[in-house]
Amino acid sequence: MDSNRLELLDVSKSFSGVPVLKNVSVVVKRGEVHALLGENGAGKSTLIKILSGAYRKDSGKSIIDGREVNIRDPFEGKRNGIGVVYQEFTLANDLTVAENIFLDQLSEKGFIHWRSINRKAVGIIKDLGFEINPKSLVGELSVANKQIVEIAKALTVQAKILVLDEPTTVLAPGEVKDLFKVIKKIKERGTSIIYISHRLPEIFEIADNITVLKDGEIVGTRSVQEVDMDQLINMMIGRSISNLFPEKEYHNGELVCEVKEYTRKGIIEDISFSVRKGEILGFAGLVGSGRSEVMRALFGADMIDKGTLFLEGRKTTIDNTSKALKNKIAFVPEDRKEEGAILENSVAINMTLAILKRIKNKLGFLSSSSENKYCDEMIKKFNIKTHSLQTLMENLSGGNQQKVILAKWFLTNAKLLILDEPTRGVDVGAKSEIYELIKEMAKETGIIIVSSEMMEVIGLSHRVAVMREGRISKILEKDEISEVNIMKNAVPMESVEI
Amino acid sequence: MTGRKKILIHFFVQNSTIIVFIVIFCLASFSSDVFLSNRNITNLLRQVAALSVVSFGMLLVVLTGGIDLSVGSVMAVASVTFALANATLGFFPSLFLTLLVCLVMGMFSGFMVAKMNMAPFIATLAMMIIGRGVALNAANGSPIQIKDPILTLLGRGYIGAIPVPVFAAFVTFVLLYIMLHYTAPGRIVIAVGSNEKAVNLTGIKVDRYKMLVYSLSGVLAGMGGVLTTSRTSVGSPILAEAFELDAIAAVVIGGASLAGGKGRILNTLFGVVILGTISNIMNLKDIPGYNQLVVKGLIIVIAVYLQGIQLSDLAWIKKITRILKSN
Ligand SMILES: Nc1ncnc2c1ncn2[C@@H]1O[C@H](COP(=O)(O)OP(=O)(O)OP(=O)(O)O)[C@@H](O)[C@H]1O
Ligand SMILES: [Mg+2]
After folding, report:
1. What is the distance between the alpha carbons of residues B255 and B188, in angstroms, rounded to a whole number?
2. pLDDT at A470 over 70
3. The dihedral of CA A368, A373, A376, A377: what is its sign?
4. Which pTM does this prediction carry?
5. How many angstroms does the Cα of residue A41 sit away from the middle of ligand 2?
6. Cβ(A382)–Cβ(A406) below 8 Å
7. Residue B155 Cα, ligand 1 centroid: separation in angstroms?
């Protein structure tokens, strides 16, 4: 038997006449981690969906273990040993963790043996190095835990090929390490792994071979040893990036907002900080340390039990989101799928939802010319890949969806801009563009950035608030900002003492 | 398949409501000579005027991901209220009072959904039962004669060649079309149905827009009630029983998704006309009422099936064409 697990040969696919994949061929060996790289919209997820049967290819061949297979739907994909963790969540929020993991098996059997299913679920999750109660509802889990459940679900099939489409975007550094351990374990069983990510350092850590896609075509396949970061970036975006992060500039503007002793019982405690105009305040911490919760409280999406807020020196109460917007606070939520994008609607509708007042004409009608003007400008500025303004959000690649949402908030001219994971799932080229834009914006506003990508917080922030278990454990200034200092203040007390 | 062919099929799938309408309309014209006569078409339009107005309200609610089961009862309340008010007041004050009562009913449904967090199905089911009870109680369980020349004019009169109810429905259509396509509230209503959380985090008061659609649905149902009443000049507490089902059918035939966020008012209008045409042609052909129900149900199935078709499902059409060609 030869060592090729999967061969995709001359695969092509177009959506309503627009080609997305053009004669793509990839060979994945037995027991290797094969990374798939490319810009947002390059066609990575589409290729994966063709492999798994979620989409049908227009032409081409799939060969698994030397035999040509014709996978027409995800069920057949599974039967052929293909487990996929899609970029988008595919979990049912109203079912428990265990039910979700065994969802496909549930439908095959008449009776459900709850105890054994719960036990098996615990086993799988433990193998992954995590602990989640199998009986809790998925809807109540954090995004990171949802991702774990998603991976556990893909592992219930005897997978010959496990596909992970941007699995780490929602994980914190420590959790990524755990995931990599799991990947190595799975790989030793002879399972091949196709790994998609925009985080290049990860690729060098985990991948054996790398294939780069650009505009639906293969640029090339290399082994990790023979390329470096710059070459990869060059293959992906056709140019090199010297500095991912722009030079920091310190302005000392007037106070935009001052938060005092924000408390939401059992979730966040005694949160105090301030942001000046022209300043970028970073929030670091482990997943579950309460960063996102602070932001939601600040934006009025969650109620606080105690605390005061001063906006430009004036005491202000913000107890619902429309008050926040009125006070010129904007919030880009972390969970794009569930809280950010309106997937069934067009790019234009998504982009202008927060500024409908501005595109109204004197009679109160929405003016499509001024709408188009704003949207076109943003599409150019953010380099968004979309067929037209009327394209539905759900037909955009993940990274481009994120850019549309950022554009929506950039349009609001907010005084305080809260960005929760602003570059999640965005490719390197676009990342550097977005960083540049954030820096531009910071001249006019105060900005708060929450990110689990440590380099992002370090590279952009003027000050960094580190959170631990619902409290701010330290606010780092200028030279204090470093990976070591952040980690030291982020990990739980007990483990520091050990 | 070439790109252009795909786009063509895409177009047909997108506009399947209109195509179903054209097919039914052609079938109807061929099967009866009376169908295309001026009188019959005018009559058909007059018959569907009330349903269209009520269905527009239903569409607004459905767009937000809700449903309004109370429209039939609201129509009955409108009918009775108008009859009672008209005994002492003139036409316009009675009309105003009637619409006000219906507005309040709609607002209350909206309040239950938006503020009390009740499921729309249950909130409006309660309103449906309450409304019917109120109507029966107010009318003492029996129909009320109305003697108002303006009401008669509303029911039977014409503006130019157009019957007044048809005119009223058309004006409503245009206003709501503009609202849905060209104003901020229209856009927000659609967005709420697609992703409520995202809209809320955009800083928009989702509650308000929910209240708005139920209130509008109430007023439009009231209007539908008055239009229906005008045809007989009788205020009836048992008016429009199960009318909500027709309105939902029209909206669904028009391609709206009951999950919210998807639906166009032009297609709802066609949905209404499809239902009207079917009843009309079957009446002309003397098909008994029971069978009419069966046909109506089947049409809903076909129309909705056509909307759900994906391009990949059309492989069998290709196969059939190939077989036909080879013969
Ligand atoms: N169902 C669809 N209908 C129409 N166009 C689509 C559809 N799915 C994807 N596309 C288009 O295909 C192209 C490739 O998308 P894909 O999701 O494969 O990109 P990707 O490489 O995974 O990007 P990302 O890194 O942002 O996730 C994009 O231009 C996207 O707009
Ligand atoms: Mg993707």
Report:
1. 19
2. yes
3. negative
4. 0.78
5. 7
6. yes
7. 55
